[in-house]
Fold these 2 entries.
Entry 1:
Amino acid sequence: MEKRPVKIMDTTLRDSHQSLIATRMPTEDMLPILSKMDQVGFHALEVWGGATFDACLRFLKEDPWERLRKIRAGAPKTKLQMLFRGQNILGYRHYADDVVEYFVQKSLANGIDIIRIFDALNDMRNLQTAVTASNKEKGHAQVAISYTLSEVHTLEYYIQLAKDIENMGANSICIKDMAGLLVPYKADELITALKGAVKIPIQLHTHYTSGVASMTYLKAVEAGCDVIDTAMSPFALGTSQPATEVMVAAFKDTPYDTGYDMELLSEIAEYFRPLREKALESGLLNPKMLSVDINTLLYQVPGGMLSNLVSQLKQQNAEDKFYDVLQEIPRVREDFGFIPLVTPTSQIVGNQAVLNVLAGQRYKMVSKEAKGIVKGDYGETPVPISDEVVKTIIGNETRITCRPADNIKPELEKLKKEGATYAQQDEDILSYALFPQVATEFFEYREAQQTKVDPTLADKANKAYPI
Ligand code: CO
């Protein structure tokens, strides 16, 4: 059989710690192992974006841009990847196009090679600005499809989406299975269909939550999947990804052999093992996160959402309502046009399900964000929301059908002025743009510590793109 080595993106420095330890891995824990990770020959290292940006500023009191530049310097040979939430960038609202474009420029200038861009609703209009900006800067734009199950999410639906993604100028496609819903034989079907429909590479991203993920990768790779996402074993499994070493071993001496050095991987794992132990001891890593949770398949709810629900219900002294809420989630999702559950829709649907159950009546209380979904503020839902649901939730309020960002005027100039007080580098304006309050607190902390942005690292990026 013809050799077709599978490529691996290692997520240890981004998704794995976001999924297992609330995104709390500090940069100082990453730097010492980078040179070894750089030797493996990974397709890419996922190191930035997602929740890491927010967590750096808010909890770790670190400059996310400095983190990126230090990682870039520590792993010069390997491509670096980030996760980007389309028009939401790394925040929780839609931003104007000029901010999205500037963020893409700066991410690439500071060391990112591949930008994985997704939209919670799979509304392609919310991805176009970021893809075009990445193309312009000669970055690799990967568009991720938020994978979900429903009567409308058929193979034909995914094939059409993949064709649209290829046509919009993306360099590759990722199936982003954030909840671990993709079971092995369905993966075979899906990857086979997509490989037959588009020419650009297909990558698969899943989580181990439901326990099927490594089998899913096996079938996906046999079906032609080009790249899979894994994490080093100490930060793998549970709500994280399948283990890197396990997948490498599984494909050894087959046509899909990665050729990676198992000794080297074992040394890298050895480095991360004490960090895992430390997280278990401090309680940051909850052993519950590491076990198989079959509810995710039954209720199609991402693992992170389940743990959020438990703590939300605890606060309300309504833990006994857990299963009622779980059953309510798919109903709310259906009412909202079968939207996928991923940041921020997972929180919005989860909250609304809680409100419905606690109020004892559907949509008696409705969150502002849930109204936003119905109004079209987040984009177009996979199927239109029924007139009845619209009427119940927003009455006669106006809905929008355009791309939400079309209603946002350019805002970069204004943000530059507002954020100027503490800015030590161009990038600070973008931190401020995404999280005005949190970034300001971080800048004040930085001033108080008399810390300066490292000019040797910052210079290159700033010269490339002066404000
Ligand atoms: Co993920």
Note: The CA atoms of residues 325 and 353 lie 6 Å apart.
Entry 2:
Amino acid sequence: MKFHITTFGCQMNVHDSQWLTRALESRGWVQADESEAQVFILNTCSVRDKPEQKVYSELGRIAAHVKRDETVFAAVGGCVAQQVGTGFFDRFPFVKLVFGSDGIAGAPNALEQVAAGKGNRLALLDFVPVYEEREQPEEETVTIPETRQAFVNIMQGCDNFCSYCIVPYTRGRQKSRHPDAILDECRLLVESGVREISLLGQNVNSFGLDKGGVGVSFAELLTRVAAIDGLDRLRFTTSHPKDIAPEVITAFGELENLCPSLHLPMQAGSDRVLKAMRRKYDIARYLSIVDGLKAARPDIALTSDIIVGFPGETEDDFQKTLDMVEKVGFESSFSFKYSDRPGVAAVNMEPKVSSEVASERLMRLQTLQNNITRKCLKNLVGVETHAFIEGLSRKQGTNLTSWKGRDLAGRIVNVEMHEQSGLVGMMVPVRIVEAKKHSLNGERIGELW
Ligand code: 5AD
Ligand code: SF4
């Protein structure tokens, strides 16, 4: 079968899609362009209303392919699938499979069944009480990406119920994976050539603090993964400020391969709004974490998620968000207009902030952020670091080949080099020579490794 996967949303979805691709390939299926695909798989996101709308327009587009060949069918997975469930079958007759967050482990077999004409339509929408291990490739058949970077899931779901967030409803309760399974996967990846691992979970700082826990904290897990011989870079995402342990903060100063960057969603800069958001920390606590991180690792790059226009947010509250963005000096941030999501507590909170006011706040926030980002990048000119090469740069110069890599904090660094091929997955020692709006230019100062 020829299949085409489209992924929306977070890194967890990206990783789920990569896993599904491998699982289908091991069954003899092949990836194909849309024009040739017999099966369309959408891995969906419903965290905000925009990504959800995109899912519907994408299904509209797939309908055109069904006209080309009426045996073409679609499968919808991820958060929107969990939410809408079998409702997709009524609205889009060519959708033959829906699978939620916990249903993905069974999706490859279900897809095979549907493709074979067995079971006209299938729905995998049940939540499981503990983390379900997914099939892993045999040791001899592990294929790693050319970039030598990999994601590893450490948990599923979220128990926080922030008042705006649909994730606990679409991804279910928090379920930690067994640390041995995580370590086995990480070791196998590194032995197969992976140099950078990103540990993934909705709220990694509360790893182990659920039914799946076996007494290993996130800090311990980090230490164990970091100790794997040959692992050059270790990252993790996402962190909830309320759960970050002092040991995780100090780990930034102690674990050599733990990269100096942390995505630590602040969401708002006003205690009143944070309380209504049910974030369970205040600004004083957030700042003390930031101080701790900067003390442990002075070059740490902090990034954030911020919501503007949360119900009840006043101009004064919003000003506090701007103040905090400036004070912390986030290198970059993702900022969003609050949108009502079905079933979350904030739906019933008043007064709603008008779309115009929220848009205007978003613009002011983004202007401030762009200025801070520019300053942060400018400060890096002259710094010596390594760029881990991911591929060719989008813009090519005239003489040399421009390669795109990432520094330790994950910033894009473009480097011009004589080599025209073969550099993906290599480290290049560089000196930063120029700061662009969202990236850096570096010059090579040493041997590749
Ligand atoms: N409206 C706007 N932004 C939201 N996010 C989550 N739920 C909502 C919502 N209802 C944002 C948060 C979160 C990021 C992944 O998406 O900032 O950290
Ligand atoms: Fe959503 Fe809050 Fe859980 Fe993050 S921690 S997934 S924002 S409920």
Note: Residues 158, 160-162, 165, 167-168, 202-203, 240 surround iron/sulfur cluster (ligand 2) (CB under 6 Å).
